[in-house]
Amino acid sequence: MIKGLKGIVATETSISHIDGDQGRLVYRGYDISDLTNKCSFEEVAYLLWYGKLPTERDLKNLKEELRKNRTLDSFLVEILNSLPANMDMMSVLRTAISAMGTVNYTWKPTISQAIKLTAIIPTIIAYRKRTLDGERFVSPHDDLDHVANYLYMLNGKVPQKPHVTSLESYMILTLEHGMNASTFSARVTASTESDLVSAITSAIGTMKGPLHGGAPSGVIELLNEISIAGDAEKVIRHKLNQNEKLMGFGHRVYKTHDPRSIALKETLLNLVGQDKWLDLAIEVEKSAIKLLEEYKPGRSLYTNVEFYAAAIMQSIELDASLFTPTFTSSRIVGWTSHVIEQSEDNTIYRPQSTYVGKFMSSSV
Ligand code: ACO
Questions:
Q1: Any signal peptide, and if so, which residues (predicted)?
Q2: What domains are there in the chain, each with its CATH number?
């Protein structure tokens, strides 16, 4: 029995490839370093869904489809208004997406369904955030693309270009990542020939956990704690002495630097240059890698994507409650691509377990 299915290959895929030893991530044959900062969110989403980069016309059509599906239906507004104020954003997303499961989303999943779900997530997030903050909802902006429109709906003003570029880099880098826990969840649900909405609802529930998509908030807490204490080494040693995990470090597959973390750090250095949070993050990274090697020798623990993602979100002033939901609004593209791939050559996932309980005598 292999705990956590470590190292087990669960399926074949042509969506992405991760080389954990070399620190390489490939989407449909293209290295992510060739896509980030050169392509838009829409272009890379198209690549993942259709398996090829779009022509100008394809791209125009995809943007149009996304725009058409950004508006909240009245039943979703009613649901969102009825949710308790203390419900976290990931639970809100899970509930709202689940409520979209109508006859329009029956088996088999399609790219058109995937586009609809991808288009609506930023609007759900922005609606909920602004309503909770007592602010007027800002309707989608017809002239803005997916990422810029998300920031526009959140803040009520057309975003600065560097903010859009930073967020778009992050979102492209997190669109897809092989058989991670939430993608696996989505594929398991789809493998029963359940619908796309159910598969994505499963994935959102899985994404929510602090060991997966919930890590960026933990990174901010770590950076805050170190910023207040003024001594990175002391705080990190204390955590490692308590056997606590450092959020934003370690990865199941990468046993070297996570290429997404390197790309995000570069994006940040190019766009914001000198910045309090970025300087602190670089200092913490250095100190943590040294101490992790001391406390956990040979485990090859480096920063993962969530570490510099937290610094990006901080630098564009995105509220911490939106970190994991923003990750969700990019990863939905990977989830939906996988569900569609699963449907094309489906076998239900049904592993086994080893019974370690007792066997009682037959007299009950
Ligand atoms: N801090 C301290 N020690 C760590 C860390 C960490 N962040 N990550 C792993 N280790 C240690 C473990 O304690 C374990 O030590 P041991 O051999 O003495 O028992 C060893 O390294 C191996 O760790 P596992 O937890 O077995 O590695 P696994 O592959 O199961 O876990 C995971 C990967 C979940 C990402 C883990 O590194 C972790 O919890 N990191 C912190 C949370 C985080 O940043 N999550 C975001 C991941 S990226 C993403 O999901 C998008």
A1: none
A2: 40-211+320-344 (1.10.580.10), 217-315 (1.10.230.10)
